[in-house]
Each structure stands twice: as structure tokens, then as C-alpha cells.
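Re: export button greyed out
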Amino acid sequence: MGPLDRLFEESSRQLARRTSRRSVLATLGRLLTGAALLPLLPIDRGNRALAGEPAPKADNPESCEYWKYCAIDGYLCSCCGGTSTACPPGTAPSPISWVGTCHNPADGRDYMVSYNDCCGKTTCGTCDCTRSEGERPMYRPSRNNDLNWCMANADANYHCTVSVILGVAEK
Amino acid sequence: MGPLDRLFEESSRQLARRTSRRSVLATLGRLLTGAALLPLLPIDRGNRALAGEPAPKADNPESCEYWKYCAIDGYLCSCCGGTSTACPPGTAPSPISWVGTCHNPADGRDYMVSYNDCCGKTTCGTCDCTRSEGERPMYRPSRNNDLNWCMANADANYHCTVSVILGVAEK
Amino acid sequence: MVSSARWLAVLRLAAVSLPGTLAAATPPPPLPAERISVQQLPPSSHHWVYVFDDAFANEIDMRVHLYDGDHYRRLGQIDAGYYSSFNLSPDGATTVVATTYFARGSRGTRTDVVEFTDNHTLAVTGEIVLPPKRAQTLPTPFNLAYSADARLLYVSYVTPAASFGVLDPVKKTVLGEIDTAGCVLVIPSGAYRVSSICESGRLLTVTLDAAGKELARAMSEPFFDADRDPVFVQGIPTARGYAFMSFLGKMHEIDFSGEQPRISAPWSLVTAENQGVWRPGAQQVGAIHIASGRLYVPMHKGGEGTHKDGGTEIWVFDMATHQRVARWPMATQGLTRIIAVQVSQDAAPVLFAATDSAQLAVLDPRDGHIRHVEKHFGQTPWQMLIP
Amino acid sequence: MVSSARWLAVLRLAAVSLPGTLAAATPPPPLPAERISVQQLPPSSHHWVYVFDDAFANEIDMRVHLYDGDHYRRLGQIDAGYYSSFNLSPDGATTVVATTYFARGSRGTRTDVVEFTDNHTLAVTGEIVLPPKRAQTLPTPFNLAYSADARLLYVSYVTPAASFGVLDPVKKTVLGEIDTAGCVLVIPSGAYRVSSICESGRLLTVTLDAAGKELARAMSEPFFDADRDPVFVQGIPTARGYAFMSFLGKMHEIDFSGEQPRISAPWSLVTAENQGVWRPGAQQVGAIHIASGRLYVPMHKGGEGTHKDGGTEIWVFDMATHQRVARWPMATQGLTRIIAVQVSQDAAPVLFAATDSAQLAVLDPRDGHIRHVEKHFGQTPWQMLIP
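Workaround output, generated via the alternate export path:
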């Protein structure tokens, strides 16, 4: 029985009795990625305080200030042979991820962003970036960037992190 | 057949035919340590040019300038929980080693020093020290500090290096 | 071993290079041959600290350094593998490390394992191989924890489904696995209770028998709101349990001495006008000297998202009165942002602070005076434990 | 996916924050959802360099970085394990890494292995498990080397008894082991000769058949004196073989194109009055642009024992005339000591220099002008190869 099956079994047997519906949805949500994740996940708008400030390198994907990286904690794949959405050659993206809600100053919108780890090589070690806006501790895994999200990969070693727009964040 | 047996077999079968006696002795010498090593090893006096200069931290075993460290390249065990002659707790000294000839400014003598690696934990990482006086490339292993001298230990991981006086260097 | 020609050479050298001394005096005997040994640790001290280096740029090579806060020396190292967690046994005699190895360094067969190190010899004395479910996360005191009587050892699993393993640290076996219904971490209490933190802001407490089988479970009332003001999971040991600090600086003290956790009303580290302006932030967010009731917290000025940024100051509070009793800027003393704090529990305690530039500082917990700073103490010293 | 309330909010924000623009204009459509991919490498360039990071403070985590010397970007990483060696296949399509893994990171069962990485995908495509004899030493081009036709692969063994393994890189098997009578390293030539360097200053050359069995062996005359002026083992590729530089700056060119190595009379990088004053020193001590005959050497002022110290200057020589044609101080350009150099072999070459503070610099090999510097390029970038 794989982790997904097991999780569903747990959901029906125990989780639903003891935790809120929202928690269950978040738990399911963290097993998915891409646009399908969007309706399942809670949205965080806590990081708008800085929206009016100048965003110096908000349009450079090799800078930690790039707008999509608002909830990242790790190494930017853009500096490691990948791009902001592409894992470096020879690594594999994690199928599970955490999400953030990031403000794009270019169009004034907030976007849901999925952070997927790229896995199977040792730590890239360049472009360390910790921002953690809207990040939550591991009891909310869908918003947590401390966990090794390569955990479920065949090769579970963390290398770097990409960020992928899921869609505009619902108000 | 262990490496020592094998080496002896090689010595009798092939080495003696093809290399100088001195080379054979050096090869044997590097399998031993302690005072027994002394008569077998070549002596290098190339590093006396600096003997007249002030030796700033020559009496501090946590300094790379300590007189015994003249041919070291690695981490000083003195900074890693050991001393200049003691491996840190939980590590094991290498039974094989390289040697140097170091000048002790306190008594004006040159000493033969054996450098043994301490093995079985990952790199200590503090007090990096490279001096390499009288050091020779790996074709003279008894004087080479590039090799992992933990190579023959049960746990062959390099942690740090100690230095052990073998005796006064013969002129 | 010393020829007479050699003696003459020494005499000649002495005569040339030391003209002001008695050149004709008998030279000292040569230094004797030395023997290699393995250093033995002296009896342990209250001021020894175990410092976890996350080795953030080389995560397959994490390690724990044992450091002497009186003599300012490293005492030794315990290797910790990949994305690992560590803790100490209740008697301080053993370090446990939960870690992962891959057969080819960063690839290949994954082996999750708990390793036991004798804190007197710093040698690994045994291991328990785990199912490949170990929670690979940053340091907390609750990734891996002993029961109070050291008969059971609990290890967090996240696959990402959450559960925990129950281990027998004496027989070195896995006793079983307890599902935690999405709640995470292992907060140990009594014999044998394990509490986990839930996204709903509640604690799930599972009671086990001595063989690690579940006897009962219960949910607490919610004590925090993960949306509005989440708590750090780096709980701080108190006299009767743990305190959980929130991102905005609320202290939630929880008494774990009874059958179920008793949660006190929170109090705040910051005044109303400073809420959201000054805040705690670190990898290890606070330490309490229990006898004196002094709490040490790395604080900084910053907004949402800065909860890992590290403190520019250490603030000191009285746990009884909830008053701030001191505020120590660190930059003026040469430290960068404080990323972890720990304090010893003896009557003459020392305070340790690790920074985001891998400084390890030893401070006087009475006045914040820095007694000593180690530079380049590993790469990322993010957690410190003292038995 | 976008509600009308959301549109209004965007319009309102635009009206407030961008007063000078046409606030009533149609807003741009939202950015589309993105898909994760894995980056594909473009066709390889002559200016790509493979940089070996010895990771000296975390030696179980060595790695090779692929770097683009035109666009100043990392292209990817190949993991290299513990105390490893690497090389490239003659066609440049494959990176081979000889390394060691321990079952418990730094302890436990030792596995020596050669790993093959496809240089287009940077994925490991296969491995050969070795006997636990691999020479664990610092980078040279001769720790691990292909035959010219890529049918055989040689790997140095030091236990400390010296020998080498003969591998079949196609079938991924160990063919055998050749004893080298105390001589070390595998200098490949022809089909199939392997030369090793002996303490006596000679070369031992073993000739093999296509199955890796020894057919013959021969010893050269001595060409250096390990006592008086040893050669670095980091040989520099030349048009017909390799040049071995001595600690004092003598160049020993050896032609490996024939049945036996032909050793030329040495020439000197330093004038008589500078001998022993200025000297080469680095982990990778020189590089030659073969078509132009330009040799680049990190040089420094220093005495015996400084042969690993790194160069404060790069000196440029003409291999035909043996004249120094340039001398480039590096500190004035912001570089610390040069610990490795490499040059591409194309008609518009780039020169790479790595320093002891982990800078990676891209230079113009015509005038030494620095085009770009990467800081913190790993910990200890000690060897660079270009196919």
C-alpha cells in the first residue's frame, strides 16, 4: 500500500473523525501539484505589507528577490543549471510540494505558487534563498518549507527548488 | 591475503627487481609507525631555510605554525577534540602514515615526525593547515600528504591529522 | 639515538644563534618519541553543549559538535548524515541521531536509521533501522525524543502522511507505528504519552503501554490559530513541560506533567504597539534557565515571512512576571543575526548563541556580555542541546 | 479563475499606485499556469568546463560542476562522493567518477565504484564496482583515465601497495589488476599502454592487450630527482603527450605517441637567479593551449613546502621558444591565490582560473583580462577539465 492509498485509508478511518475538514483538504492538497491543487488549498494574504515598497530584483529569476520566490527556503534552481520552473539536468522534480501566495508587482496580482524540490543530487549550494512569506510550520505541510519535499522521490536527496505559477490567488 | 602480505609478496617477486632499494624501504616504511619506522625512512633537510626566521606560533599546538606541523596538509586534531598526538574521541588513528622532518626552534634540533590521520568520522573542518615542507608527490608515499592515510582503516573516512615525534633526525 | 656529531651540531647552533646565553651549558636532552593515543573525554560538565550543524550547502554531511563552554574548545564530533535530527537521552549519556543514508551518497537505496552514540567515548554503539518514513525536516526537540524513563524512543514519520515510530532503545528494535491523524512531531511526557501538534491548533495526545501499543488518544482544545499567529514547533523546555512561542511573540506555556496537557493563557513578548514590528525569529527560538525563570529570545524587527531571519537582539524575560528584564543588541558586539540560543541549567549558567554566519558565542546570561566567539563553527549551527 | 471583484481590485490598485498611467486601460491577462520541466542541456560548447570541488571541509560530498565560460552560468552538477577522482571520455560525452561510499556516511561497509554520467543529461548511466583499493588522493589527470579509443578505462589503486585496475567501460566490468612495482598513477597512451611514475624518477610503461592482460613492461631512464626537484603529478596535456613541471619550475616534456615514452631535456620557467624564489604551486599547476603553444602557470614567491600555496601571478610561456611572454598579477584584479588553471583548445580560447577562496574566474588568455568572476564556487575548486 503506497502512501497515497494509506493516506486515503487514514482519511476515511480516522482523520475525518479527529481533524477539521480544512485540515483533511490541506493534507490531500499536498499530494498534488499543478493547477489541480488550486481549489483545495488555503490562501494566505499576509504578505501584502511590502507590496508598496520598491522590489529591486523582482524580475530576475536568479535573485532571491524575484517575485515568485516569496515563500522559498532553499537553493534557487535558476542558479544551479535549471530555471525558475525547470529542474537542473539529471535531477527529478518532486511530485509533492508546498505553496505560497506571491504578489507580482508587474501586474499587481497575487498568484498561487507551487514550490517543488528538484531531487537526486546533493545540495546545489549556490543562491541560498530564504523568504518564507506565509510559510507555516510542519503541522501545515502544504505551507511548510522545512520538510524535504524530495521525501517521496525514488532518489530523495534535495538539490534545489523551482517555483511554478498555479494561477491567480482567489481573494 | 592482506595488503601487508601482498606487499611483501610483491617485494620479493617484483619490486626488488625493478626499483631501487631505497624505494623498497620507503614502501615498507610507510606500513609502520612509531620509533621502529625511523631507520627505514629517508630524511629530508630541505626546510632549514626558514630556521633563522621568527616562528610566531611555533609553540601552540592549535596553530598551523606549531613546529611539528611542518609537513601537514589537513585539519589539526588539536582543534577537533584531540591533541597534537591524540585522535579525537570516537576516531581511530591510521596505522600507516607519512613523515616529515621538522625543526624545533626550542632546542634547535630537527625531528622526524609521523603524521597519522584520525579516521572514522567526516572531515573535522576546523584548523585547516597546509605546510608541506619536504612533502613529495604520491610516487614517494612515505612523504606524501595527498593520500587518504585512513585508506587501510576499517572506517576509512578522514577526520583530522596528528603529529608524533619519532626521534631526532639523523644528519 | 643521538650521535655525538649531532650533539656538537646543536652546541654549534646554540653558540651562533644565542650569543647572549651560556653557549657552553649542557644542552637539554632531545624530546622523547611520542605515542599516538585516542583522547578520552574528562567527566562531563554542565557547560558542554551539543551543537547541530545542518551543513546547509552539503546536506549529506550534517554533524553534531560537542563544545566546552568554559574552556572554549571542541571536544569531539558525532556524524549525522542527511537531513537528520538529534536528541539526548534523559541521563545525558547517549546521543541519538535519526538520519538517512543513500547507497550512492545522494542516490540509490535509502536507509533510515537511528544511531546511538556513547557520549563518553563518542563512538557509535548501536543502531535501529527504520522504515523509510523518517520526517526529514529542520531541527526541533520533537523530531526524535526519549520517554522520561528512557525505555521508549519516539521518532516522527512524514511520508507526507504523519505518524510516529515507537522504538526500544535498549533492545534496539522497532516496536510499532502510531498514526497521528495528520498531527506532527513527538512531544514526550510521563510514561508513556506522546503529544503531536495539529494544524487545527490542538494537541493530539496518544497514551501507550510499555510495549508501545496505543492505549488511548485525546485531542486538546485549540490553543493557537495557524492562519493568524502560528506557533514555532521549536518548543522550549519549562519546569513542567514546554513553551511554544508564536510568530508574533505570544508565549503558550503547556504543562505536560498530568494525564493530558494543560494549556495556560498566553502572554506576549511584545507590547501592543510593537506587535508585528518586533518579533522572534530563528531556527531555535528561545531558551529558559528554569531555576531563575529567565527566558532568552532572539528578536528582530521584521514583517511576515521573517520568522527564520534570526535575531539582531536577545531579549530577556522573567517567566514569572512576564516582564522583559533586558534587551541586548548583538551587532555592537560583533555578532550577526542570532539563529539559535541555549542556556545551561546549573547555578552559574552560560548562554550560547549561534549566528547566521556560523559564529558560536558564549555569553554571560546575567548581562549579555560576550565571553568568547568561535568563528566558522561549521556551516549552519541551527540547534544546541545541553543534557 | 479570476472573479470580477478581483479585476476591480487590480484596477483600483493601478489607479492608486500608477497615477501617471492610463488607469482605465484594459489590464493585461493574468500569467498562465506554469509546468515543471527538467532542463535540457544545449549542444555542448568548447567553453564548457568541468570543475571539481574537493569540498575539503565536507569530503564525503565532493562534486563536479559544469560551467559555461561564455554565459557565466552553472549548467549542472555531477555528484562525486568521498575523496574521488574524475575524468572525461575522449569524445567528451561521458564523465567518469571513481569514488567511495560508506554504508553509514562516514562508517560501515566501503564500496569503491566508478560511475558513468551522460554529459548531455547529467544522469548516471552505469557503474562498475571496484575492489576496495582505489587510490584516494587529490586530483590528477591520471587517477582514472580512458584509453585513446575509449575501449579500456584504467583506475589507480593504492592500498598503500600500488597497482591499477583495468576496466571495460562498455560492458561495465573489471577486467583485471596490474601490479606496478611501487610506481603510481595511470598515464594512458596508444592502444594500450599505461605509464606510471616511480619514486626513482623513472616511468614504468605496461603494455596491455585488448582484454587488459599485460603483454610487456619497461622502465624509462630517470628524468627527475625526487629528492632535489620532484615533479608534480598533475601532468599537463601537450600535442604529443604530457609535460611534468617540477617544484622548482623545470618543464619535462614527454612524448607518449610511440611505443615507449620519449623524454625531452627539461627547460626552466625561472631564470637562474629566481630558482627557488619564484616557483609554480597549485593543485592544478598548468594548462597549455596546444594550437598556439601557450602555457599558463600559477607562480608565487616562496620556499620549500609552498608547492600547494597557489599562484599570486599567472605566467605565460611559449612552448616552442621556452620564453616567458607575459606575467599577470592577480591580486590587483581581485583574485586570491590561483589554485587551478585550465584553457579551452578552440581558436578563440577562454582561460579559467580557480582560487584558494573558491573564486572561479574567466580570463582572456591573450592579455589576462578578467571577464567574469564567480564567488563561492563550491568550497575548494581544485581541478578543471575541458573535453
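Chain C touches chain A through 47 residues (CB under 8 Å). The button fix ships in the next patch.
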